[in-house]
Amino acid sequence: MTEPALTVIIPAYNCADYIEETVNSVLKQTFSDFEVIVIDDVSTDNSLQLLNQLASADSRIRILSSATNSGQAACRNRGVREARGRYIAFLDADDVWLPRKLERQIEFMTERKLPFCFCGYGTINEHGDTIIGDLKIPERTEFYALLKSNTICASSVVYDRQSMDDIVMPERPRRREDLISWLATSRALGGYLYGVPDPLCMIRRLPGSSSSNKLRALRWQWAVYREVLGFGLLRSVYYLANFAITSLAKRSPISVALKRQVK
């Protein structure tokens, strides 16, 4: 079998309400030379049944099942190990891509000879209604900027395995594994990480999700500074204050009103 140019990796757990929309957003991409690996993490709803139906309808979709619930990072790592594509793209099971996402990012990486690329994104609610059309991410970021504001979401990332080592996400503890991975990638590549600033994917914010719990997010961010990076107290306070201010500013009513909507 001819190897695909790109592998899409989707960790899935109890995502029956959204997984068909998510997978279909991949199948509708204008860049079509891909395989899709979905890792079901012992879902207790009918996610696996829906995934098997999707796979039976499109040979590019492969379904893997975890023996025990292992978390998103472990599922992504397994997907990377199983991937046959030169490029790796991550996608969460309730997020969606705009049709030209992969095409735009592969062109961007090829033209600039980049090993890693992210893109802009908006947010939607559980009904698919737009909350923020465009979060206005920067065109580039680096280690110290990421410490103040993680502007890279997992569903926006594409990287080239021929130009950099595979990303291996930390599987314990099950928090902030994406940020920790981008920090490690920035250090490994020795400089800036570049992105397409246009919103090419939509991130779903669900009521009660970890991403919607601001106090929990601050505790997890603090753990990154203190436990993962080993920063001292004052340095950790400095970065946490920046993180808190930036997070509030990104979602303030004035800021949201100024952001353009996805066309």
Report on the architecture of this protein.
The chain is of the alpha/beta class. It has one domain (6-207): Spore Coat Polysaccharide Biosynthesis Protein SpsA, Chain A. 38% of the residues lie in helices and 21% in strands. The chain is built from 9 helices and 10 strands. It has helices at 19-27, 47-57, 72-82, 101-112, 143-148, 177-189, 214-228, 233-250, 253-258, and strands at residues 6-12, 34-40, 61-65, 87-90, 96-97, 116-124, 130-132, 140-141, 158-160, 193-204. Strands 1, 2, 3, 4, 5, 6, 7, 8, 9 and 10 form a 10-stranded mixed beta sheet that branches. Strand 2 (34-40), helix 2 and strand 3 (61-65) form a beta-alpha-beta unit. The radius of gyration is 18 Å and the shape is globular. The termini are far apart. The model is unreliable at 253-263 (pLDDT under 50).
Secondary-structure map:
Layout: E1 6-12, H1 19-27, E2 34-40, H2 47-57, E3 61-65, H3 72-82, E4 87-90, E5 96-97, H4 101-112, E6 116-124, E7 130-132, E8 140-141, H5 143-148, E9 158-160, H6 177-189, E10 193-204, H7 214-228, H8 233-250, H9 253-258
Parallel strand pairs: 1-2, 1-4, 2-3, 6-10
Antiparallel strand pairs: 4-9, 5-10, 6-7, 6-9, 8-10
Helix pairs in contact: 7-8
